[in-house]
Amino acid sequence: MAAETSRKKGPKRSSGIRYFVALEAGTGVGAALRDAAGTLPFGGIRWVPAHQFHFTLKFLGEVPDDRVAAAREATARAAARIPPFDLALEGLGAFPEAGPPRVVWAGCGAGCEELVALAAAVEAAFGEAGFLKEPRTFSPHLTLGRVKDPRAIPTRPFRDALARGTAAKFGTIAAREIVLFRSDLSPAGPTYTALSRYALGNR
To answer: What is the CATH number of the domain that holds 175?
Structure first.
């Protein structure tokens, strides 16, 4: 099947609907991650609600209605290829690594290799289904917040506060399933809807 892009091109107006595949953090680590955000008392950051914490395995962008079923099938195939695992959350960071930050994130420790393998399985399954390959290398991170105006944050104090959290530990995620999400964009922020859930290793 010829490769196709899931991001619409041309003058047609965007629908504001996006799709992505993710591993949810779950409720067990939410409080620790919220506390981590509290160690960065800087204005201008839009913090992600705790119930939305997740690792994005593949961002699809807009997907035509007649391709959503293919996205479901690809997610199911990817999940079946990787057995369940546990993932330790630890460390804080920001993108970019130097200069004014744009994204604040939490990283991972034990289980990170399995997470990378899971993302690779998702990428491969979607490639087999004809979806466009992600050009960037997968970077394991859980987004805590997005900076609305990088100029409003004093870079040195922010980086110093961030450095104090590099060894922080936030708990463990029991990675047992992945989810195909629909994201509806609005000025108040995105609303995520879980379309389908697929158990890992469920062959």
So the answer is: 3.90.1140.10
